[in-house]
């Protein structure tokens, strides 16, 4: 057997050449040996022999590693370029949306400001009417609900500083319960309140929280349903019947609604205000009965 060393490509890569006897291996197919890669080619002048062209395995692995390295660098560069393009495109695309949101927020502030005067005027004039009637009572209730919606929008669009004070939860619960009982008198109401429970909180914020919780409990209740309110030193619990909640983990999310009714901000405002007042909220839904618990341990005066 003779050994030859010749150059086969323009980059001067050296291959080893052997002339071997013809065997049953396929020509032009790549084979691996311990230290070499090789292929077999026929010799045109000698049908009984093959030319075996060998390439060092070490050189092959180095080239493969170099190609892999080059591919990885290119992929990283392409990924970075794509990320930069995506970021620039996102900023460009979101800019009109950001402007629209700012305009919408400003528009809502203007509406809230403009609503304040007529609502206050209607409430004052209703109180001045000496002759009371069922129609007047209904108008007054409707105006109060409109005023509460106004306060919700105000809470949503602004972030006022909540000054702490001694707050009587019994007073807020009784006032809000009486308001909703007059509207939802067909529901079975059960109220159990311990006396002399005061918390270190903000009166207006707690009023918003309890109003929104009771409003939600009434609005999504059954026609023959119930509402139960329990207040003690440790917690305020509101339990109500319902038609079921599809996604309990989402009900405190902004704009989340399970029906076409409402704006989807009431319970989000509850969550937002409770967090600012250091009050934890627990939600439990079992057999279509909804139980919301406000934990008062951190804010109750002992």
From TrEMBL:
<dbReference type="InterPro" id="IPR005467">
    <property type="entry name" value="His_kinase_dom"/>
</dbReference>
<dbReference type="InterPro" id="IPR050398">
    <property type="entry name" value="HssS/ArlS-like"/>
</dbReference>
<dbReference type="GO" id="GO:0034220">
    <property type="term" value="P:monoatomic ion transmembrane transport"/>
</dbReference>
<feature type="transmembrane region" description="Helical">
    <location>
        <begin position="71"/>
        <end position="94"/>
    </location>
</feature>
<keyword id="KW-0597">Phosphoprotein</keyword>
<keyword id="KW-0812">Transmembrane</keyword>
<dbReference type="InterPro" id="IPR036097">
    <property type="entry name" value="HisK_dim/P_sf"/>
</dbReference>
<dbReference type="GO" id="GO:0005886">
    <property type="term" value="C:plasma membrane"/>
</dbReference>
<keyword id="KW-0418">Kinase</keyword>
<feature type="domain" description="Histidine kinase">
    <location>
        <begin position="110"/>
        <end position="300"/>
    </location>
</feature>
<keyword id="KW-0808">Transferase</keyword>
<keyword id="KW-0813">Transport</keyword>
<dbReference type="InterPro" id="IPR003661">
    <property type="entry name" value="HisK_dim/P_dom"/>
</dbReference>
<keyword id="KW-0406">Ion transport</keyword>
<keyword id="KW-0407">Ion channel</keyword>
<dbReference type="GO" id="GO:0005524">
    <property type="term" value="F:ATP binding"/>
</dbReference>
<dbReference type="Pfam" id="PF02518">
    <property type="entry name" value="HATPase_c"/>
</dbReference>
<dbReference type="GO" id="GO:0000155">
    <property type="term" value="F:phosphorelay sensor kinase activity"/>
</dbReference>
<dbReference type="Pfam" id="PF00512">
    <property type="entry name" value="HisKA"/>
</dbReference>
<keyword id="KW-0472">Membrane</keyword>
<keyword id="KW-0547">Nucleotide-binding</keyword>
<dbReference type="InterPro" id="IPR036890">
    <property type="entry name" value="HATPase_C_sf"/>
</dbReference>
<dbReference type="InterPro" id="IPR003594">
    <property type="entry name" value="HATPase_dom"/>
</dbReference>
<keyword id="KW-1003">Cell membrane</keyword>
<protein>
    <recommendedName>
        <fullName>histidine kinase</fullName>
        <ecNumber>2.7.13.3</ecNumber>
    </recommendedName>
</protein>
<keyword id="KW-0067">ATP-binding</keyword>
<keyword id="KW-0902">Two-component regulatory system</keyword>
<keyword id="KW-1133">Transmembrane helix</keyword>
């Amino acid at each position: 057997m003779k050994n030859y060393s010749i150059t086969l490509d323009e980059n001067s890569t050296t291959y080893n050449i052997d002339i071997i006897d013809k065997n049953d291996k396929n020509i032009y197919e790549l084979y691996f040996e311990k230290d070499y890669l090789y292929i077999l080619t026929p010799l045109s002048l000698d049908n009984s022999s093959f030319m075996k062209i060998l390439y060092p395995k070490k050189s092959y692995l180095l080239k493969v590693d170099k190609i892999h390295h080059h591919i990885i660098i290119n992929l990283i560069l392409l990924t970075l370029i794509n990320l930069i393009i995506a970021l620039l495109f996102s900023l460009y695309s979101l800019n009109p949306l950001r402007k629209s949101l700012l305009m919408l927020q400003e528009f809502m502030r203007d509406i809230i400001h403009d609503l304040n005067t007529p609502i206050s005027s209607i409430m004052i004039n209703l109180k001045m009417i000496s002759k009371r009637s069922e129609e007047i009572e209904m108008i007054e209730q409707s105006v109060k609900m409109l005023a509460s919606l106004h306060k919700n929008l105000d809470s949503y669009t602004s972030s006022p500083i909540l000054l702490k004070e001694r707050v009587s939860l019994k007073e807020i619960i009784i006032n809000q319960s009486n308001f909703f009982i007059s509207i939802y008198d067909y529901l079975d109401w059960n109220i159990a309140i311990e006396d002399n429970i005061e918390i270190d909180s903000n009166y207006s914020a707690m009023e918003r929280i309890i109003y929104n919780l009771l409003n939600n409990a009434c609005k999504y209740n059954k026609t023959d349903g119930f509402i139960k309110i329990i207040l003690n030193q440790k917690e305020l619990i509101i339990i109500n019947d319902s038609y079921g909640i599809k996604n309990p983990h989402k009900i405190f999310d902004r704009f989340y609604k399970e029906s076409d009714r409402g704006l989807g901000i009431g319970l989000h405002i509850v969550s937002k205000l409770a967090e600012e007042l250091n009050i934890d909220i627990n939600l439990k839904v079992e057999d279509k009965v909804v139980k919301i618990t406000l934990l008062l341990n951190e804010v109750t005066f002992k």
